[in-house]
Amino acid sequence: MLTIYSSDHRFHHGVELKDGAVSESFEKPARAETVLARVMATGLGDVVSPKSYDRSSYVGAHSERYVQFLAGAWNEWAATGRTCQALPLVWPVRGLPSTEVPQFIDGKLGFYSMDAGSPINAGTWDAVCSSANSALTGIDRLSGGARSAFALCRPPGHHAGREYMGGYCYLNNAAIAAQRCIEQGAKRVAVLDVDFHHGNGTQDIFYDRSDVLFISIHGDPAVSFPYFSGHADERGVGPGEGFNLNLPLPKGTAMSEFERALLQAGAALARHAPDALVVSLGVDTFEGDPISHFRLRTADYLRVGEIVERFGVPTLFVMEGGYMVDEIGVNAVNVLLGFEG
Ligand code: SP5
Ligand code: ZN
Fold first, then answer.
1. In the chain, where the domains are located
2. What CATH architecture does domain 2-61+130-340 belong to?
3. What's the 98 CA to ligand 2 centre distance in angstroms?
4. ipTM value for the complex
5. In percent, how much of the chain has pLDDT > 70?
6. Residue from 225, 293, 319 whose mutation best tests the ligand 1 pocket (most atoms within 8 A of CB)
7. Computed from CA positions of residues 50, 269, 335, 142, in that sequence, does the dihedral angle turn out positive or negative?
8. What is the b/e burial string over 189-221, where b = at least 16 CB atoms within 10 angstroms of the residue's CB?
9. Residues carrying an active site annotation
């Protein structure tokens, strides 16, 4: 299987607020390096750099004004004299009346985010583009006839909605790839999200559409991030009704229950009969993950890949979360090796 990877991800590295203090983000450069090292060590296949794409390729999944905001956010922040990372600290929640975009960067950061989990520094935009471009290059390989590809994206994307960042995500790499697939003529696409966290951003982007089926298996939002989406009764709206499938699972879920959900996802996928499948591949379902609550083991990831292969659809794997840095390489690549058979 071909891997698409850019070392430009290193330009992005941030902090997060945890237990009342600022510390290095769990979402750090070593994550992608570990996965790449494992791709090479196992001889999974060639590794290529992403092609470059115009930023208009991100519009569709995202709004034009959000893409513009992201591209310019660091410069607007730095123009105020600050050299620290940019983080939002105020949000337009229920009850606050204004829906206008603020003129000042501190207000814009809140307007275009869901949490304080996506810091922006001088290199963030370049890294974010390289990540989205990896997914775009991957989907173009599928259009060119490949049966599968692996976009080793960093930063991840599935928490980023049409007009917001959050949860370590900025551009929704999987959604951008799925959207391109449709624009290039596919009638139906599916996104299957197996990251521990609900893919709220991908859901947001495709919620009113019937051409892109979104399925997410994740920790029950009653007790897990992102808390405000991912319930089973979120099924899509308007023409999109019935094309959003959430499969929340309790804390402590191990492979037997996870596998049952995967097979349920497979049945829904078969009914949709997509031309292509994008898998949002998070491995924070691992038993040792520092921020999540499932109990998958290293060998289970081979089985996940095997099951996805049996769906019989050309598949682009897009890297999402996974924070036990010593293990994410083996676990992510096990999915790909399981798929290869
Ligand atoms: C892409 C992705 O996996 N994003 C996840 C973002 C999660 N952000 C909030 C995590 C809060 C978890 N707090 C648990 C602390 C355990 N010591
Ligand atoms: Zn996650």
1. 2-61+130-340
2. 3-Layer(aba) Sandwich (3.40)
3. 31
4. 0.94
5. 100
6. 225
7. negative
8. bbbbbbbbbbbbbbbbbbbebebbbbbbbbbbb
9. 159
